[in-house]
């Protein structure tokens, strides 16, 4: 939301290639129901790219990986414009990871299929991206204290324990005896097997590329002379980028797939979730911002057509 004494603006994000019917409904809601004076509909990746180019003004290209709740988008940008031939969507996001973790825990330990919020918190607190999947899997099969990956997660009871937490390693009881009333999830290979779906969706039957492979494929769809610039400007955004080890794994796999004479750089912003919002804030302060938006007067005069022309979604 952008406010000044004269006009009320809104910047709102939507997915790439959104359905026309949804776009038109959004226009009606913004201008007719909420009566905004002006609106800008834009992709989250475009705002992230704007933020990145603001900080790295010497760079011509970047490729944004936006791995969020419902899916993962990979989009190359050149001089601030998205390159539609390189846009790639992977139907794996945080929701799928949480649901898969619910199924694993329900099958192995405790029925939690109705506890989406709690298990999402478990995922965020204990899961990480493995740098060597087979080595971690071998470790996860060890018993007792030899298994350094094992963690005990204390579930909330919403009276004395408001929020679940991971027990410190030194407080874990490997004999399986817990305090009265304490409900524990013991997690081992689930910690890294769930985020692994971002890199190998085929593990659960989704016949799509993982993030590193899709990244390289997207770059290869770009003109040859631009490809080195994309490889050295990979930007990770979205909640899944917060998994420990995510940036390192993406770098490692992209480096192995990229031509040896190309530099590879993977950037993880300090707050990958709010990075598009920061880009939107910068965009609203741009002197050309008023040229990007559609005003309510424009909409009332020209209808949806003016939005189609101005919003390159």
UniProtKB/TrEMBL annotation:
**Which Gene3D superfamilies would you find in this protein's record?**
3.30.420.40, Actin, Chain A, domain 4
Provide one Gene Ontology cellular component.
nucleus
Localization: Cytoplasm
Q: In this record, what's one Pfam family?
A: Actin
UniProt keyword annotation of Cytoplasm present: yes
Is Transport given among the entry's keywords?
Answer: no
What domain of life is recorded for the organism? Answer: Eukaryota
| Alphabetically ordered keywords of this record | Cytoplasm
Q: Which InterPro entries match?
A: Actin, ATPase_NBD
PANTHER family the record matches: ACTIN (PTHR11937)
Query: Which protein family is named in the record?
Result: Belongs to the actin family. ARP6 subfamily.
Q: What is this protein called?
A: Actin related protein 6
Q: What is the lineage of its organism?
A: Eukaryota, Metazoa, Chordata, Craniata, Vertebrata
